[in-house]
Design goal:
alpha+beta, three-stranded antiparallel β-sheet, 7 strands, rod-shaped
Length: 299
């Protein structure tokens, strides 16, 4: 590729100004190329993350599939960084390309910058070279190099990046913090232990502490659970419920009723009078994690 060559003859003020502006234009071209490559990499990473997280949330992807997907994506990233992101840094920008980009914003430029690149190192009379340099310097004073060299594709890439950021924010709100972090870890760190997806609503038994309790017939029993994550409202279909099921009688009878969760994310319900062989458990539609069963039987 052609480059701006160093001349052995004295350089006037106008020619020095032209050289400085051309070097500035070359740096601007390289900066825009690196910025576009960086945005492209960010788009690829966020798109991969969103696709894997959404797919894992609805399809519960296997650990092997997530590992193979990540290895393939890392191979793509390595090639992209070397060829696309580091390419503008390793390559020399053609000064003629930068000069043409600047001339397109100068009215009546008449290829003054290109002429200067062609002739400034030729064996021409000093007066001719000086006149060419002065004309190119006058044209350069009529434009701003930073405004002259711009890229519309950079704006499109920035818009796509912003859209993916909004998509990540929306998925964080939809999945809640703990489940979002779980899906993110399964997508970008699938090696090691095969961790399950954290549920939005997680229920653990508080009372009775061991989960099982033996009481006499016709005695009231209080069952308390701790709810972490999303706590459904009492009037919603996915609200907290307590399921009571008799297990000793041949004819199994069961009933369920909605429960109200307090501000401390705990749900306490007295059950009684209870019959021999009753098992209770707390559940919500948003959670597959069921509290340990509580049973009562006649001594």
């Amino acid at each position: 590729m052609a480059t701006v060559q160093e001349s052995t003859r004295p350089i006037g003020r106008a020619e020095r100004f032209v050289q400085q502006e051309l070097q500035r234009a070359i740096r601007r071209v390289r900066l825009l190329d690196v910025a576009k490559a960086g945005l492209g990499l960010a788009i690829a990473v966020m798109a991969y993350g969103l696709v894997m997280m959404l797919g894992d949330r609805w399809l519960n992807l296997s650990q092997g599939l997530r590992q193979v997907s990540l290895l393939g994506f890392l191979a793509f990233v390595a090639g992209y960084v070397w060829l696309v992101l580091l390419g503008p840094i390793r390559r020399v920008v053609n000064p003629y390309y930068a000069a043409l980009q600047v001339e397109q914003t100068i009215p009546d430029a008449k290829n003054s910058l290109v002429n200067w690149l062609d002739l400034h190192d030729d064996n021409l009379p000093q007066g001719v070279v000086t006149a060419i340099g002065e004309r190119a310097a006058e044209d350069l004073k009529e434009t701003d190099v930073d405004q002259a060299i711009k890229s519309n594709s950079l704006v499109w890439l920035a818009g796509i990046t912003l859209g993916l950021v909004i998509g990540f924010a929306a998925s964080y709100i939809m999945f809640r913090g703990d489940q979002f972090n779980s899906l993110f870890g399964r997508a970008f760190a699938p090696f090691g232990s095969n961790r399950d997806i954290v549920k939005q609503t997680r229920i653990s038994m508080v009372t009775p502490p061991e989960g099982d309790l033996t009481v006499a017939t016709n005695r009231k029993v209080t069952i308390t659970v701790r709810v972490a994550g999303r706590v459904p409202l009492p009037d919603r279909p996915e609200s907290m419920r307590l399921l009571i099921r008799t297990i000793r009688r041949p004819s199994i009878a069961s009933t369920s009723a909605p429960r109200r969760a307090s501000s401390a994310s705990r749900c306490s319900t007295p059950t009684g009078p209870t019959c021999a062989g009753t098992r209770a458990r707390a559940w919500t539609r948003m959670s597959r994690t069921i509290a340990a069963p509580t049973s009562c039987s006649t001594p």
